Each structure stands twice: as C-alpha cells, then as structure tokens.
Amino acid sequence: xxxxxxxxxxxxxxxxxxxxxxxxxxxxxxxxxxxxxxxxxxxxxxxxxxxxxxxxxxxxxxxxxxxxxxxxxxxxxxxxxxxxxxxxxxxxxxxxxxxxxxxxxxxxxxxxxxxxxxxxxxxxxxxxxxxxxxxxxxxxxxxxxxxxxxxxxxxxxxxxxxxxxxxxxxxxxxxxxxxxxxxxxxxxxxxxxxxxxxxxxxxxxxxxxxxxxxxxxxxxxxxxxxxxxxxxxxxxxxxxxxxxxxxxxx
Length: 250
Ligand SMILES: [Zn+2]
Ligand SMILES: [Zn+2]
Prior knowledge:
By secondary structure, the chain is α/β, with parallel strands linked by helices. It has helices spanning 20-26, 48-53, 94-105, 112-126, 141-147, 151-163, 185-192, 219-230; strands at 4-5, 56-60, 83-91, 133-136, 166-167, 171-172, 197-198, 207-215, 234-242. The protein has a domain at 84-250: Rossmann fold (3-Layer(aba) Sandwich), CATH 3.40.50.
C-alpha cells in the first residue's frame, strides 16, 4: 500500500483536496458531545457548557495507569516496555463515552475529524515525544467489513494531519479476536496475543504514535506496540479515551 501522507508534498497536490473553509461550509463545526453548533473562530471542539463538564486525562503511565497531571510520576520502567508512553483525551465515561459509542457503533464518522485533530494537537503540545509517523491499531477484515470503517484509522488520519506527519498503516490484524469489552483482564491479554502482524519495511529507531479509540486494560495497544517494537520502532500511544485497569498489571 502506498504511504498515506497528511502533509502536502512540495509541488504536488495537497493530501486533503478541500479547503478548510469549504469543509466548514459543508460541515459546520459542532460540539463533539452535544452536537450544538460552535461559534467561530475555531477553538476547542466542545461548546462552553460541555467544556465545563469535560475532564481531561492527559499523560498516563501505560503500565500502572497513574495520571501524571494528578500527582507524581510513578517510576515504572517505561524504557524497557514496548509502549513508552500514553496520552488520552478524557475518561471513558458519561457524555464522552456516548460520543465514542456513536463514532464506533453508530456510523458517526464525522466525529473522527475534530477528535483526531484535537488528539494530535494535544500530543504535540503536551508531550515531548516528537513522533515521526502515525500508525492506527488495525481491525480484522471481518470486523472491518461489518462496520465499514476502522474508527482508529480515522482518528489516526486526522491526528497525523494535525501533527503534519505521515500516516503509515504498518500493522495488520490477521487473527480475529473477541470484543475486548466482554473479557477479564487476563482474557483480554490472551485474546489479542499474536493478533497483529507487521507489514512494511523495518523502520528501526523511528518514533511512532500508535492511535486507538479507547485504552482500557491496554492489552490491545500493548500487543500492537510489542509487534512494532520488535521492528525497532519506538512506540507511544494516543487514545481518545482512557479507562482504569480492571486489575493490576502483571
Ligand atoms: Zn456541547
Ligand atoms: Zn506507572
């Protein structure tokens, strides 16, 4: 598959064919959670009322789940783990949870644009990761055929656009898995073990941002990061929502 690039190449056509103003005319910006029209100029993709109820998550330890903005760093040895960091926009609860449900199960693909862009902007502003490419967590082809799209790919595409980085779908998921939400912590790890495969040339030493919609036990993203790190990539994770672990890490 050719490299998908969010950044317009010099002299070539832009990756996004429509101008921002044309896009806004067709799809006026709406609040992510209550869908109220948002006034110009472009700012946060939430109305004032929903901003007051929004709980930012931010940088989180992908091993123990410590939220760094709420206290001291935890001291987990992240250098030795496949996933070196995790950034999430908010908690998987309330209006934010309902919004992600619409994105994932109710064909509300239009949510991915403001959501992915916001995620990309915050990763650029609030982390020191400096990723060089963006990789979506893939779906198995059967799930993709059922849903018609991969919400993680949509989020990754717009995060890449905000970060002005190439989007590289370097992972595939040849093994079908059960929905993670129906399983215990240990079952989730076993469910995704060996589920992903690397597709593409090795990129040793490259810093990658791995994007998924929801990070809960982290089993999926940890397994995807393991496959990428075996190819020499340095992997950081970004998700639209985070939910605390079901049980402590092993
Ligand atoms: Zn709102
Ligand atoms: Zn930790």
